[in-house]
Write a structure and sequence with these properties.
Layout lengths: L6 H11 L5 H11 L3
């Protein structure tokens, strides 16, 4: 998975598939954004 260098755009794309209410969202977001 290649990350878009534009983190805001990436977050928007990610939010199409997930909502903050999903329990996995915070966990996955942490894994992804810790690496940016």
């Amino acid at each position: 998975m290649s990350l878009d260098p534009n983190a805001d755009k990436f977050k928007i794309e990610l939010s199409k598939f997930m909502t903050p209410e999903m329990p996995v969202f915070e966990e996955l977001r942490g894994c992804i954004f810790d690496r940016l």
